[in-house]
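Dear colleagues,

As part of the handover before I leave the project, I'm documenting each prediction I ran so the next person doesn't have to rerun anything. This entry is a single chain, and its sequence is reproduced below.
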Amino acid sequence: MRSVSSARERVGLCAECVHGRRIVSAKGSEFWRCAKSETDPRFPKYPRLPVLACDGYEKTVRQPLSPGGGED
């Protein structure tokens, strides 16, 4: 699995956006889809990468792991 910082360099904002969806084809090609495009036609379904600026960008909030790394 690739690191978030590596994906951010190749993909741009989509790698950390709540609307970004990583799609991998059966042949192993990687694409990024913008879920925001489903409700707003201003956003392309498959944006040209890397995305360096986007009005729809919303940073993903990752939940911290609980102490011990498992579920309580």
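Residues 65 and 71 are 8 Å apart (CA to CA). The mean pLDDT is 87.

All the best with the project,
I.
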